[in-house]
Amino acid sequence: MELTKQLAEAVLSADPLQDKRAVQMARNGLLDAAASALAAKEDEGIQKLMALVEQEGGAAQIPVMGKGKKVSRQSAAMLNGYLIHALDYDDVHSDVRGHPSAVIIPALLSQLTDGEIYGDRFLAAYITGVEVMARLGESIGKAHYERGWHNTGTLGAIAAVCAIGYLKQVSQEGLAKAIGFAGAQSAGMRKQFGSDMKPLQAGLAAKTAVWSMDLACSGFGGNDSVLDGALGFFSLYGDQELAESRLLEGYGSTWRIVAPGLWFKVYPFCSAAHHAADAILSLMKEHAALPEQVKQVDVIFPPGGDAALIERAPSNGEEGRFSVEYVIALAIFGQTLTLDAFTKKNIPTDMRTWMKRVSRGYDQTIEPHPDAVPKGRFTIVKLTLSDSTTISKRVDIPRGAPGFALSKEDIIQKLSSVTSASQAQQILQAVEEGNAAAYLKLLA
C-alpha cells in the first residue's frame, strides 16, 4: 500500500484516548492556545486581517478568538491560527521544529458548525494532528528547515487535515485525497520570520486544511498518493527514503504529544532563544552586571542551533522575537522578557548599539546532554566584564520544555494573566468537560 494511503489508514484506525497522559496534554494544549490567542487579540496584524476578511464578506459561522465576531469557516481557521501564533507565545514541538497547535486547533474548531458534540473525540483528533505533524517533521529531514522552509506552514496543513479526518471519521479514500490537496498547497518560508507573515503562515496552513477536506468531501478530483514517489511531497520537500522508514513506524503505540511532548512557552519569542534567556537571567541573578560592566557576550550554540534566530540587529521588538542579541540585551538592561518588549515598537538606539557586543559562536566538539531539548541542542552564554573576569552559564533544557515542563497550574496562570480569573476557570471547565463548542464560545 502506498505511503499516503497507509497514513490515512493509520490515522483513522488508532485510538489516542487510550493514553490518559495524551488526553491531559491535549487539554493543556487547548489552555495554552487560549492564552496565546487572547494575548494577541489587540495585535495590529489581526486588525488588518479582520478588515480584509470583513470586506470580502461570507457566512458568519465560526467565532474569531477575542474579537466578538464570526466569519466563514476557512477565514476563522486562518484568523485563529494567526492569533495563536501572532506573538510566538504558543507551543512548539521539537520533532516538528515548529508550532503544531496554532494550525491544528483552529482547523478543528472550524468544524464546529453542525451542532454535533464531539466530546473527547475532539481531543483525540488534536492528539492525532500533533502525532502526524511530529512524524512529518521526523520524516522530512533536517535539510527541509535548513533550506528555508517554515515547517509550521509546510507540514501543518497535512497534519491538520488528518486531524479533521479523524474528527469527522471520513473514509480512508477521502482522507488520502484530502492529504493530497493539502500537500499540493503546503507552503511557508523562514524568510518571513520577524514579520506579520510568519504567524499568518500558520493561519494559512489551518485554512488550507479546512479547504482541502471540503474539496475531498465534495468529490473534487485529485491525486490520492501525493506523499509517494519521485514527484511526491517527500521527494520534493525532503527525503523520501527517510519518510518510508519513519513516517508510520509504530503508529499508535506511543503519542508524540506526550514524548517528546509539547513545549509550553514561558517567554513570548522564538524557542531557539529560550536557552539563552534562562542562561542570562540566571547570570544576572547571581551577578548584578550592568550594561556598562559587560564588555563582551559570547553565545555558543551547536552548529545550526540558532537557525531560527535570523535577526542579529533587529530594529523593533517584533523582529526581536528572533534575535538572541535582543533577548540578552533586554536582560542586561534590566528589562523583563514579557509581551511588552516584543511589539512593533522600535528598540532604543542605545540598546541597538549595545547589541553589537553580542557575538555568536558554534562548537561541534561539545557533548550534548542526553536529555537536551531539542535533541542535541544547548546554549552557553559567557559574559566578559570590564575587569576582564568571565562568567558563564550553560542551559540544555529551558523552562517550559519537556523535562522542565510547565504544570497545568502554570498554564492556567498563563491564561489568567491575559484574561480574568473567572473566564480562565470557565475555559478550564469547558476543556475538562470535553466541550469544544463551549471552549470556542468562551474565547469569542
From TrEMBL:
InterPro entries assigned: MmgE/PrpD_sf, MmgE/PrpD_sf_1, MmgE/PrpD_sf_2, MmgE_PrpD, MmgE_PrpD_C, MmgE_PrpD_N
MmgE/PrpD C-terminal domain span: 267-426
Every MmgE/PrpD N-terminal domain range: 6-240
Family label: Belongs to the PrpD family.
Name of this chain's protein: MmgE/PrpD family protein
